[in-house]
Amino acid sequence: MLDVFFENRFNARYIMLILLVVILLFAVIARYHGMGVVNQQEEQLPDFVMNKVLEEGVTKGAGTGIDSMILKWALAAAEHPDESDAHRFDSFEGALFVGDSRTEGMKFYSGVDNADFFSGKSMNVSKVLKGETVNVGGQELSLQDLLKKKTYNKVYISLGLNELGWTSKDSFVESYGTLIDQVKEAQPDAEVFVQLLFPVSSKKSASDKVFNNANIKACNDRLTKLAEDKDVKVLDPSPPLVDTTGALKMEATSDGVHINSDYCVKWAFYLARISM
Predict the structure, then answer these.
(1) 171 within some domain
(2) What is the pLDDT of residues 210-261, one digit of tens each?
(3) Is residue 3, in this structure, part of any structural domain at all?
(4) What are the E-state strand segments in 36-183?
(5) What are the residues facing 193 on neighbouring strands?
(6) What is the domain count for the chain?
(7) Based on the domain organization, do 18 and 76 belong to the same domain?
(8) Is 194:231 a contact under the CB 8 Å cutoff?
(9) How many CB atoms are closer than 10 A to CB 36?
(10) Residue 170 buriedness (CB in 10 A; 0-12 / 13-18 / 19+)
């Protein structure tokens, strides 16, 4: 009976068409399975984040969509930080923060206790390169000594605020580049992140010839280009800290430049998630 069935040319063509459709369907499925439902960042994100990504219909190949989801998740976490979450700063384990008085604020008020901080009031890239020491874990160390003493998996650099008044912008970029080179040479296995400067308040910006948001934007543009040239990552910590005009929120600061303890927590929550 089966032979009779296949002898009918119409039925044979019909079956061939079905087989072709099935083959094409499997090819499409295999293609999208190979591409993955989400990109490789899924291995770095918590399940609940990936579930949200899937709900939004983000597919692999749409990297900007996934990046957007990560930023939205990070911003939501920063706006309502759960300080009871024991894993909130897991991505900072084994990290080093290099910065000025703003980074000192994170050190003292954010709750990050699983990373080292090389930071200080009025710190700038020139002082770091010249070997100025700060207290790290009870020892007075230069950054160079610290990088020889310990191994880090991540290094966050947040400098530039105290350099806004430098006459030579080229000198700033050259010095910053030298610092990145030193870190990469001393810690070849570490991820190096350049943090952009977050803005000052609108009041501060309008009244100060140096510490204003036009100068900060120009500095950030130079840092972005430098990071690209040095093949390191750029992080923008500003979204949870700024208002709708792009200036530092008034409620986040008392002097228009530095952020208060609540916003140090928001900064840390956001940074931990966008750099995981």
Answers:
(1) yes
(2) 999 999 999 999 999 999 999 999 999 999 999 999 999 999 999 999 999 9
(3) yes
(4) 95-99, 115-119, 133-136, 139-142, 154-158
(5) 156, 233
(6) 3
(7) no
(8) no
(9) 12
(10) exposed
Tell me which long-range contacts 59-65 makes (C-beta under 8 A, separation of at least 24): 59/32, 59/35, 60/35, 60/36, 61/35, 63/39
Expressed as residue numbers, the domain containing 14 is: 1-35
Residues 245 and 164: their CA atoms lie apart, in Å, by 21
C-alpha to C-alpha distance for 39 and 62, rounded to whole angstroms: 8
Q: 3-class DSSP state for residue 47? A: helix
State the Cα–Cα distance between residues 95 and 86, nearest whole angstrom: 17
CB 164 within 8 A of CB 104: no
Q: Which two tokens stand for residue 249?
A: 């929120």
What CA–CA distance (Å, rounded) separates 218 from 164?
9
For the full predicted model, state whether its pTM sits above 0.85.
Answer: no
Q: How far apart are CA 22 and CA 26, in angstroms?
A: 6
Residues 10 and 25 in one domain: yes
- Residue keyed to tokens 């030193």: 182
| Closest CA relative to residue 102, chosen from 244, 237, 269 | 237
Give the closest residue to 65 by CA, choosing from 32, 39, 34.
Answer: 39
- Lookup: tokens for 241: 């800290």
Q: CA-to-CA distance for 107 and 192, rounded, in angstroms? A: 19
DSSP one-letter string for 76-114: HHHHS--TT-TTTTGGGTTEEEEESHHHHHHHHHS---S
53, 148: one domain:
no
**How far separated are the first and last CA of the chain, in Å rounded?**
64
Single-letter code of the amino acid located at 20: L
Per-residue pLDDT at 14 = 59
85 occurs within a structural domain: no
